[in-house]
């Protein structure tokens, strides 16, 4: 077992065919850096399956967002997670699915080109 800072993984570029993460994304402070690192260590053609968030309808969402643990602002305006992903020009599929009393938010990243993913600029 290896423990790493997920914002700076100690693996070489293009190392993994598949990355899977469930129920951990909300604990990462810099989610942008994590997504960039996942992209970096995926091989061309590789896929990452990431469970991003889950909402329980009985718990109020004071931010009125589809994923309160992953808030994105552009020009001081909150934009939806799905809109953010769609504007990246990479193959990322967004899923929002009701499972029992939860609304689950997940994404699948397919590394379809070798250009570096830069979410900050």
Plain-language structure description:
There is one protein chain. The chain has 121 residues and is mainly β. Helix content is 14%, strand content 37%. The chain has two helices and six strands, in the order E-H-E-E-E-H-E-E. The strands form two sheets. Strands 1-2-6-5 form a four-stranded mixed sheet. Strands 3-4 form a two-stranded antiparallel ribbon. The longest helix is centred in the first third of the chain and has 11 residues, at 31-41. It is globular and about 40 Å long.
Q: Strands of the biggest beta sheet: in what spatial order?
A: 1-2-6-5
Strand % is 35-45%
| Count of separate DSSP helical elements | 2
Instruction: Calculate Rg over CA atoms.
Output: 15 Å
Q: Say how many strands there are.
A: 6
For the residues shown, what is the average pLDDT?
Answer: 84
Share of residues in helices: 10-25%
Extract low-pLDDT stretches: none
Q: Measure the end-to-end span.
A: 34 Å
Question: What characteristic shape results from the CA principal axes?
Answer: globular
Major sheet, described briefly? Answer: 4 strands, mixed
The H-and-E topology, N to C, reads as EHEEEHEE
Structure class: mainly beta
How is the secondary structure organized here?
Blueprint: E1 16-21, H1 31-41, E2 42-56, E3 72-74, E4 77-79, H2 81-86, E5 91-99, E6 102-110
Parallel strand pairs: 1-2
Antiparallel strand pairs: 2-6, 3-4, 5-6
């Amino acid at each position: 077992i290896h423990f790493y800072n997920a914002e700076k993984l100690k693996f070489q570029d293009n190392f993994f065919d598949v990355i899977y993460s469930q129920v951990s994304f909300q604990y990462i402070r810099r989610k942008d850096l994590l997504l960039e690192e996942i992209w970096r260590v995926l091989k061309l053609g590789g896929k990452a399956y990431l469970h991003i968030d889950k909402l329980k309808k009985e718990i109020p969402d004071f931010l009125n967002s589809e994923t309160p643990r992953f808030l994105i602002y552009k020009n001081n305006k909150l934009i939806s997670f799905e809109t953010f992903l769609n504007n990246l020009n990479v193959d990322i599929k967004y899923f929002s699915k009701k499972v029992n009393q939860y609304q689950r938010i997940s994404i699948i990243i397919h590394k379809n080109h070798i250009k570096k993913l830069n979410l900050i600029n």
